[in-house]
Specification:
single chain; about 375 residues; alpha/beta; Rossmann fold; Glycerate kinase, domain 2; 2 domains; six-stranded mixed β-sheet; five-stranded parallel β-sheet; Glycerate_kinase_sf; Glyc_kinase_flavodox-like_fold
């Protein structure tokens, strides 16, 4: 029996790779001769870099860059030499989790460090970048990244703009002549799990700004500033990308990736599965076990378990989801190829008690599932 273990990470508890191995240990206790196929996955958000490196064997590099507030930090990125491809996770340089609650202010945070990671990849000879969008602390429309790559963003007095999205309201001149010439031949694919436009009620500022410290007044200010940035970008580029699906991802980084880097935006789980060779592993599997921290109705928007289930359904391979919790609307996932879903907790427990036990709980659930699976088979 071949079992494919392909979870996402369990936030604040286990990486996708550690979760997959915990699942496998439990299954092997129940069926010592089963064959475990390990395939850590992610949907493009935080943790996707770790999953990609684990799944592809890419090299991990560290680079000193600026964090979202301009402070030096160490950011990881991946290098797949055979593919001449760099894996860049926005959250490594400009992530929300790196900021304390009182430091989160979407008006001033910047993606400058992401641009520095692009430069490191270009210095390595990258011909392609897989950009992982999600977990950002920023709302600057990718302006910081552009500055790091050589663009000039100037106010009416010819002075460089201050970092952050709010300063874009004062943008008077956008010079792209200084952009690193190597970008012209760089292929960029961006992994996203949202389809929001840049502006408006579903835009970057309105939907994602509040979790990054933006007040209702800040949201209006940022939306106006991004709109002004989009106006000037359209004049300079000759095309307007503000309404394209995914433009609002990661505080407008989806907009910058498409407009200035010519990026193709794709659902994160599809890109991750492709890089991990998921289709080949699925062909061998009799059963698929996936999971993540929470399964609910929102998971249908492109979360890992649903991407896995939809792919497995085409081969009529059963899929079991193990989640830290099952939230409102999780039953809709049963219409997307999920055979069954289970919560991990073995009794009433606080999140603070459950997190340290995640590996143990995954092992126990998988052992029970495989015992039941074996009993049900002829």
């Amino acid at each position: 029996m071949h079992i494919l273990f392909c979870p996402d990470s369990f936030k604040d508890a286990l990486s996708a790779e550690d979760a997959a191995h915990a699942m496998s240990r439990g299954a092997v206790r129940a069926a010592p001769h089963c064959h475990s196929l390990i395939c850590p996955l992610a949907d493009g958000g935080e943790g996707s870099l770790d999953a990609l490196i684990a799944a592809t064997g890419a090299q991990r590099h560290q680079q000193t860059v600026e964090d979202a507030l301009g402070r030096p930090c160490e950011a990881a990125w991946g290098w797949h030499a055979d593919q001449r491809t760099a894996f860049i996770e926005l959250a490594e340089a400009s992530g929300l989790q790196a900021l304390a609650d009182h430091e989160r202010d979407a008006r001033y945070t910047s993606t400058y460090g992401v641009g520095q990671l692009f430069l490191a990849a270009l210095d390595h000879g990258a011909e392609k970048v897989l950009l992982l969008l999600g977990g950002s602390a920023t709302n600057d429309g990718g302006a910081g990244m552009l500055r790091a790559l050589g663009a000039e963003l100037l106010d009416a007095h010819g002075q460089p703009l201050a970092p952050g999205g709010a300063a874009l309201a004062d943008l008077a001149t956008l010079h792209l002549e200084g952009l690193d010439p190597r970008l012209a031949s760089l292929k960029v694919e961006a992994a996203v799990d949202v389809d929001n436009p840049l502006l408006g009620e579903r835009g970057a500022s309105a939907i994602f700004g509040p979790q990054k410290g933006a007040s209702p007044g800040d949201v209006k200010q940022l939306d106006h500033a991004l709109g002004h940035f989009a106006d000037l970008a359209a004049q300079v580029l000759g095309h307007d990308d503000r309404d394209r699906p995914g433009a609002g991802a990661a505080g407008g980084m989806g907009f910058a990736a498409q407009a200035f880097l010519g990026a193709t935006l794709k659902p994160g789980i599809e890109l991750l599965m492709q890089q991990a060779g998921f289709a080949t592993l699925l062909e061998q599997a009799d059963l698929v076990i996936t999971g993540e921290g929470r399964l609910d109705g929102q998971s249908l928007a492109g979360k890992t378990p649903i991407g896995v289930a939809r792919a497995a359904a085409q081969r009529q391979t059963p899929v079991i989801v193990l989640a830290g919790s099952l939230g409102d609307g999780w039953q809709a996932c049963l219409q997307e190829g999920v055979t069954a879903a289970f919560a991990l907790a073995d009794g009433p427990m606080a999140l603070s008690d459950a997190l340290p036990r995640t590996a143990e709980l995954l092992e126990a659930r998988c052992e029970s599932l495989i015992r039941l699976w074996q009993a049900s088979r002829p």
